[in-house]
Design a protein that fits this description.
2 domains, six-stranded mixed beta sheet, alpha+beta, 198 residues, 33% strand, Nuclear Transport Factor 2, Chain: A
């Protein structure tokens, strides 16, 4: 009976071994041997499991890293390129939702991509072949200053109000941009519009 009570308190493996007339001590040795065998198997699996876990964590860490933020000059260059390519869709990705674009000479002040796109379409209509070329750039943190030239064939009223058609224009100007979180927050053009018609 003592052996029976001892066996009832032992793991399942020992209870199934009672039919083989094993004593509790022998049963304990059998369980210990099985445990050691399963421990060896677990040790063999532990190395690859740890390696797989490390690989998964590394992959997650790499995936969660943000791409490096574009510098102000890179963003402003992309903005000028979008204008030259007449790419109105690119403006949504290059301007903050509350971005301000001012063209002082034309008395334009647009807020947000929608208003800037409307301005761009007006420029495309009046000057379908315009070309904006940056000749010098200075970047200081989030601020970018540009010197540029602009050439086009213009149709519409000239600075005196006289209607012109396909008038060849060209001139120089400067722009100042502010970039925030990889997007243009503010962009202002400065130039003498009358000088473009001389």
């Amino acid at each position: 009976m003592e052996n029976g009570r001892a066996l009832r308190n032992k793991p399942e493996e020992c209870q199934s071994l009672t039919a083989k007339n094993l004593t509790p001590q022998r049963c304990g040795l059998q369980v210990l041997r099985r445990f050691n065998q399963s421990e060896d198997a677990m040790t063999k699996l532990l190395g690859p499991a740890v390696a797989l876990l490390a690989l998964a964590l590394t992959a997650c860490a790499v995936q969660q890293k943000k791409p490096p933020e574009a510098g102000g000059k890179t963003v402003v260059d992309a903005y000028v390129r979008a204008w030259n390519q007449r790419d109105t869709l690119a403006l949504d990705t290059l301007l903050t939702s509350d971005a301000i674009h001012e063209d002082v000479a034309q008395n334009f002040r647009g807020k947000g991509p929608r208003e800037v796109v409307a301005f761009m379409r007006g420029v495309m209509s009046a000057e379908p072949d315009y070309k904006w070329v940056v000749t010098n750039t200075i970047e200081d943190g989030k601020f970018v200053a540009l010197e540029w030239t602009w050439t086009s064939s213009y149709t519409g009223p000239d600075p005196t109000g006289k209607k012109v058609t396909n008038k060849r224009t060209s001139g120089k100007g400067a722009s100042f941009g502010e970039v925030e979180n990889g997007k243009i927050k503010r962009f202002t053009d400065y130039y003498d519009l009358a000088s473009f018609f001389r």
